[in-house]
Amino acid sequence: MDVTTATFELEVIEGSKTLPVVVDFWAPWCGPCKAIEPALEELPVEVVKLDIDANPRTAARYGVLSIPTVILFANGEPRETVHGARPKKHFEKVFAPYL
């Protein structure tokens, strides 16, 4: 599912108060972003995508300076961040306390 600046508060901040939400900060032109999609889709958690080109304010709000950046939100707050293209096992290890 895609989120935007307009839907971020409801979908991610409020949504993560019941179950963790992983946000994939990406752009359509980003090859490494496309490479990690399969790994993220296999995680046992809701994963949403935010296009940083279309939503730069939200990306800046969370300090996204390079992509891919993946942030896990829990209880309405960012809890874990992964920068760069990583294998599925890396995401599982970092996010394990929340899965």
CATH architecture: 3-Layer(aba) Sandwich
Write down the Rg.
12 Å
Measured distance between first and last alpha carbons? 19 Å
* CATH superfamily label: Glutaredoxin
Q: What does the main sheet amount to? A: 5 strands, mixed
Portion of residues in beta strands equals 25-35%
CATH topology: Glutaredoxin
Kindly provide the name of the CATH class.
Alpha Beta
Which terms would index this structure?
99 residues; alpha/beta; Glutaredoxin; 5-stranded mixed beta sheet; 4 helices; 27% strand; globular
Written account of the structure:
This protein is of the alpha/beta class. It has a single domain (2-85), classed as Glutaredoxin (3-Layer(aba) Sandwich). Helix content is 35%, strand content 27%. The protein has 4 helices and 5 strands; from the N terminus they run E-H-E-H-E-H-E-E-H. It has a 5-stranded mixed beta sheet. The longest helix is centred in the middle third of the chain and has 11 residues, at 31-41. It starts with a strand and ends with a helix.
Quick description:
With 99 residues, this protein is α/β, with parallel strands linked by helices.
